[in-house]
Fold this sequence. Notes:
Elements: H1 2-27, H2 31-42, H3 47-50, H4 57-68, H5 76-89, H6 93-105, H7 110-132, H8 137-143
Helix pairs in contact: 5-6, 5-7
Amino acid sequence: MKLITTAAALAAVSTLAFGISIAGAQDKPTLEETYKDIESVYGVTPEYMKVYPKQGIAAAWALTKALEVEKGALDPKIKSLINVAVAAQIPCRYCIWLDSKFARELGATDAEIAEAVAQAGLTRHWSAILNGMQIDFDAFKAEFGGE
Length: 147
């Protein structure tokens, strides 16, 4: 009896979840609408976005646009400098090139880009030392007045 009740409950939840996903899918922009929106921002729909899985590009673009284009807590130039710094550490030559271009368009100087990259390198350097030497985390925090 309990097995039947559990199965019925699971079926109801599955139906509800399926209904929600169908409703959510109806709100999702079409592939063509997504490409058109990308082009309105970049002036082109880049090849890397065209080869992205079709079922996921709308969501990937929505996230990219929300973090890269829409107003947030960080200034767009700072975002681009962060992107260059991270890209230098990954490394991703595509990202380094494009985010450096965007950073410059947003007013970043070569000195600011160099410093952002150096900061990322410095963080990576000390991270390698701290982790590689297995410095005790609680002792590390205590040295800097942390809890």
